[in-house]
Amino acid sequence: xxxxxxxxxxxxxxxxxxxxxxxxxxxxxxxxxxxxxxxxxxxxxxxxxxxxxxxxxxxxxxxxxxxxxxxxxxxxxxxxxxxxxxxxxxxxxxxxxxxx
Length: 100
Hints:
This protein is about 40% helix and about 15% strand.
């Protein structure tokens, strides 16, 4: 089998186990990222649900606060306090069309 295919399967399995919660969820995320870096494999988009600073799984209402403010979505990790702002609406569409 292809090494990258094995790495992807292992990453998906680890992140699924992390989603189930428990004491070891952070460790599973760390291991998945380590495997991804070592084998140069991207984390699938549907599994990008962890904080980049503390590696905790982000569950809205439990470990994540989501707010909508003036043309952007604000996500705050409740474990470490990391803030992520994601623009949306007319402003974002304008920026995209301007680059092209």
